[in-house]
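Sample pair:
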Amino acid sequence: MTTITVNGEPHHSSTQPSVADLVEKILGVRIAPDGTLPDGTTLGIAVAVNSVVIPRADWGHNHLVDDDAVEIVSATKGG
């Protein structure tokens, strides 16, 4: 069992999910390994693992391990 923290909340998985898998599970949308949606567009979010931003193109290749701390943040309009 893999336990990771996402935005301060514990999440459990029977596998070591990729960042793309995690984003897909959290947001409930299909995410390709390169971090795009099925229509090729991107979500306005960024993902950091253990305080290191993961490039969108690496989401499918970056697998999470026990005790990783993940932050998912979304872009907002305004100033």
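The chain is about 10% helix and 30% strand.
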